[in-house]
Predict the structure of Terpenoid synthase.
Amino acid sequence: MEFMWNECKNYFNDGVIPGSAPFRSNVHICDLTPPPTNNHNHNHDYGIEISQQLMPLFSTLGGISPPPCTCHDITAIRQHIDNYIHTAPSTHPNDYTIFTEKNDTSIDIICLYTLRDVLQWWTFWAGSLNSTQDRWKLLYIAFGTIADDVMIPPIDVLNGTFRFLGHTLADVLAGLQSEHVNPHDLKFLEMCLWRQYIVQYLEKCDPSLRTMLLGKTTLMTQFRIATANAAGTAVAVLAAMGTQSRGVLDAVVEMMGTGCCLSMDMAKEALGVLNGEGTETVAGERERLKRELRWVYVRCIERLNGVACAPVAKRYATSGLVYVFLMERYRERVSGVRVPISGALRAVLDGLVGG
């Protein structure tokens, strides 16, 4: 794991915050300002545009307030992880523990439900499904998502011990290459996944890491983007639309990832399933932190209004406001019970994984 972590640090580098690698930020979100009031950019037509002025119209949202800057605290997080990894044992008693809280007993079954979730997310992000053209992009996103629900040792992903319904990470990367994903994007996707698996694993086995994040909106946001692999997923979606990213330098991908995570958290809070999550982003002074989270969200969405790929970028960044209320993944969080997979859906899933 130390080798993987060092490779991630070397690949991502620091960005705007010295000593932050691999939690790279190209944009200091605390410096983002609203656009001019006379800005009539037609990119407002894409995604779900709920501006700062309109948020108070919704009882589940409300006003916003700028958070204090805790962005530079990411250096302490990085150092804490450095120290932990350097002294960590090669295995942990909780390896392969299930964290779904949905009465799951089989990791393969969780993988199947995870792939179902990815198909539904993709419907919102891409607006269509071409399971032949984008098969390996879907499996890539699923490979990352499973890290949220199962405590998988990162080294097992690297050496192929862990397989997602029979497929190794090497299989997925080769598949992405066969789909003509640009080599630079392919490397970015791989390193995002390495980073995600490490921070997801440490988040589950090191409770002190969570304590360092609590009550710090901009710090929590930076960490959240890494654990969710929202940037890697954004690049996979862009690749499906024929758009190449700028990799570690891409501020648009950064804004897309932030919007995706925070729109989802806002909707989960409205649904009532964010409160009590082991990794909830607004634990503590809840009302203050929600106002700050909304501030970060609207600043990022405003930034996306001015980009050429806004039709894709804003759809990706804002769709969490809708899919949380429609997808089984979140309905299951309310009931604690899985929704059975239909025969038609099962046929699509079997086609993606090869039976």
Q: What stands out?
A: Residues 2-26+49-353 form a domain with the Farnesyl Diphosphate Synthase fold (CATH 1.10.600). The CA atoms of residues 187 and 247 lie 9 Å apart.
